[in-house]
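--- STAGE predict ---
source: upstream dedup step, 1 unique chain passed
mode: sequence only
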Amino acid sequence: MSTNLKVLITRRQFQEQINRLGEVADVTVLDRPEPPTRAELKKAVLGCSGIFAHITDLVNGEIMDIAGKNLKVIAEFGVGYDNIKVEDASERNIAVGNTPGVLTETTADFAFAVIQSAARRLAESDRFVRSGQWKWFDPLDLLGLDINGSTLGIIGFGRIGKSVAKRALASGMNVIYFTRSTPDDDFGCKRINDLEELLKISDFVSLHCPLTDETKNLIGTRELEIMKPTSVLVNTSRGPTVDTNALSDGLLKKEISYAALDVTDPEPIPADHPLLRMENVTILPHIASATVGTRKKMSEMTVDNIIAGIQGKLPPHCVNAEDINWE
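--- STAGE serialize ---
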């Protein structure tokens, strides 16, 4: 429809949600799988009232100023919004929304599946078969780790971390956790107040913390050195929470036995990166929330946030509501 409101969707999206936005605004869709270049994003945001953003879009004060005075809302397609400079938005009285809660169980399912896959070396075993190396049964080949009875250390005990803990407990794991917040219920898991202690005693370490200045490179050279040489590191949170170079070195030095990553730094990881040449590494393309149902609900919630914002109402899932004054 033709209105004074303009909304940009920075990637391809579900058509029914594009249609919903089209009922209240003129919608521009960058209808392709790859993200826009910086130059393309600058051109596309001009005059926008709302931006439907994705994790690969850096939306900072520069982009907001180019969009202009009509920009009211930036809605992130996801829970994490470290690609949006919220301080810049608040200074300009622009609401920022995200999609909390909707992907908790889906991501927890995935994270625990990755833990199990790493324990039993499934990706490595699949490559072993496909490369023609499977000649016979070998009782000592491709031995993995038991899940039952092992210790899982969870870093970040929010919604997703707690949901992973429930799955681990049901599989007979001992669960310990490190978190800065105070959970309302930890299901009998043991809280560890020192990160190094958690790393020393965990058989599996799973990251579920947001990316902040405090969590950037949370796992680096020192942390890998104190982990068990038989331990497994799993990251389904944000790539920069792990120092990629330190991880490569740690795996080469056998400071840990395996790494399974759904996120990397940089992302995507270059095809010639040393990690991709290691058999004891599984790398996945940021698909923890990638189910049809969850991604559709995320899209719906993102559109809910945009429609509210461009109509002068706070988005239902607004991360900077206390800083917004539209009166």
